[in-house]
Task: inverse folding
């Protein structure tokens, strides 16, 4: 069973690194997710990309896997209100209410996934 969790750890790590890189390649996609009251949207997108990359890399290093997974949980909890807001927004950042509704459960999946990696790896 340990191998299953190790594979899930690697997949989550790679996903985070990929998503973090995408923040730099397509910041305009992520900017609508940044709440309007926050300044410097592009900088926030870049910063969140750096955090995702760092957490993904930490999860690859056995000594820091639990730290990285804990960071992922915290990051996903920070992003959760944004995704909830998107569901109820007149103009969802995801493009449609259906897409926002589909995306929201994935936030909980990522939290549970990171928790399981933290606990079982």
Result:
């Amino acid at each position: 069973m340990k191998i299953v969790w190790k594979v899930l750890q690697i997949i989550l790590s790679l996903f985070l690194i990929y998503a973090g890189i995408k923040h730099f390649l397509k910041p305009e996609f992520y900017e609508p997710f940044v709440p309007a009251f926050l300044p410097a949207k592009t900088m926030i997108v870049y910063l969140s990309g750096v955090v995702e990359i760092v957490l993904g890399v930490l999860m690859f290093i056995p000594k820091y896997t639990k730290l990285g997974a804990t960071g992922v949980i915290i990051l996903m909890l920070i992003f959760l209100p944004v995704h909830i807001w998107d569901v109820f927004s007149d103009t969802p950042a995801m493009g449609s209410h259906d897409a926002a509704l589909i995306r929201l459960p994935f936030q909980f999946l990522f939290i549970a996934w990171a928790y399981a990696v933290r606990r079982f790896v």
Summary: The mean pLDDT is 94. The radius of gyration is 15 Å. Helices lie at 2-25, 27-30, 41-60, 65-88, 97-120.
